Amino acid sequence: MQTAILLYPGFTALDAVGPFELLHRMPGNETVLVAREPGPVGNDSGNLALVAERTLAETPRPDIVVVPGGPDVRAAADDPAVLEWLRAADAATTWTTSVCTGALVLAAAGLLTGRRATTHWMAMDSLAGHGVRTTGERVVFDGKYVTAAGVSSGIDMALHLLGRIGGDDLAGIVQLMTEYDPQPPYDAGSPDKAPAHLVDFCRGELASEVTPSA
Amino acid sequence: MQTAILLYPGFTALDAVGPFELLHRMPGNETVLVAREPGPVGNDSGNLALVAERTLAETPRPDIVVVPGGPDVRAAADDPAVLEWLRAADAATTWTTSVCTGALVLAAAGLLTGRRATTHWMAMDSLAGHGVRTTGERVVFDGKYVTAAGVSSGIDMALHLLGRIGGDDLAGIVQLMTEYDPQPPYDAGSPDKAPAHLVDFCRGELASEVTPSA
Question: Which residues form the DJ-1/PfpI domain (chains A, B) (predicted)?
């Protein structure tokens, strides 16, 4: 089994590393970071780089694809080589997945048309604009297409996948080893729960940070 | 304000990237990945590398230090250059922090002696062996020393820090933008909650994966 996590300039680090950290612990699952070119790929803030170990061409048939998001996904969603790789890989994947605005990249490749899917709460309209049936759930399964909400939700998505692929005990062991027993000191993690003035602030001041290709 | 996240061969990726993703969103906080040498640093599984942008020598006075853990922290805990940098930086930090077995590195530098602290649940005895008063809490504050439990707990630690440094609204905005509204499909994230046979499995089969320098 091989899991390919796509990197592209401007990706959000935790979108990629959350699923990585859980999925690579599955026995027999080779987890590789892939990009158009090998070498360091810079994140959305420009102060972190993850190294792509393989090119897209070297990774033609992953069993699982994970597409992380970012505030601006055009480096992936407007790149014909990335879209072509996604379409070709998807033809043979067991699971095609995204975190956050990575769903906009899958949508740009035409893979989510008519499907139920989710994305970062601030990008929901953009995703709907691709003919996707958006939902407010944190992790959405539609057949083999699995999409997760914003940034940190990729951890929950990975646990769901581990359970489906390897069973509840495998998922539990990985949850225990990564001590994923979340205890956030605030309850502001979704627009339904956060104080209204914080939601308004994000929609206003920070909207330009989520300007997906739509 | 500057936050330095230490990288060393064998670190666990999510230990570093969880706090990174939240802390770098604090306005005016330059967040840098640092290591003894610049360039790619490989993780515990050998299939992910993060790029260290600065050397320890180039980062003498960070305001916040974050030390990630790993199944084997000897590359940091047995490196005199790392320990000397930690002690010198700590003399001027506002917060000195660790995630997971990163606490064993702080302890090896002598910074946790007699203090309350935590670590990965499987490394608790090793940490106690350094003269540390261990606790089962997920995030432990003892003055400016902040330690978090295993792997994913660094996200919770970062939220606590954001609240202390920038106030509840800042922490809430970052939680909302990273959509940290955890909904794990299992409740196996701590040894108190996981089924006993999974705890036993980890203690037996996987114990060699957590062999800290103690």
Answer: 4-162
Chain B interface mutation, best of A24, A25, A152, A156, highest count of B Cβ atoms under 10 Å: A152
* Chain B interface includes A175 (CB < 8 A): yes
* Dist. CA A150–CA A154, nearest whole Å: 8
> φ and ψ at A128, to 5 degrees?
-60, -30
Structural domains of chain A in order of their starting residue, each with its CATH number:
2-210 (3.40.50.880)
Grouping H, G, I as helix, E, B as strand and the rest as coil, residue B162 is helix
Q: Which residue's structure tokens are 């305001």?
A: B63
- State the nearest Cα–Cα gap between A11 and chain B, in angstroms: 12
Predicted confidence (pLDDT) per residue in B78-127, tens digit: 999 999 999 999 999 999 999 999 999 999 999 999 999 999 999 999 99
Cβ distance of B185 and A160 shorter than 8 Å: yes
Q: How far is CA B197 from CA B17, B68, B194, in A?
A: 30, 28, 8
Distance CA B98, CA B108 (A): 12
d(CA B25, CA B31): 9
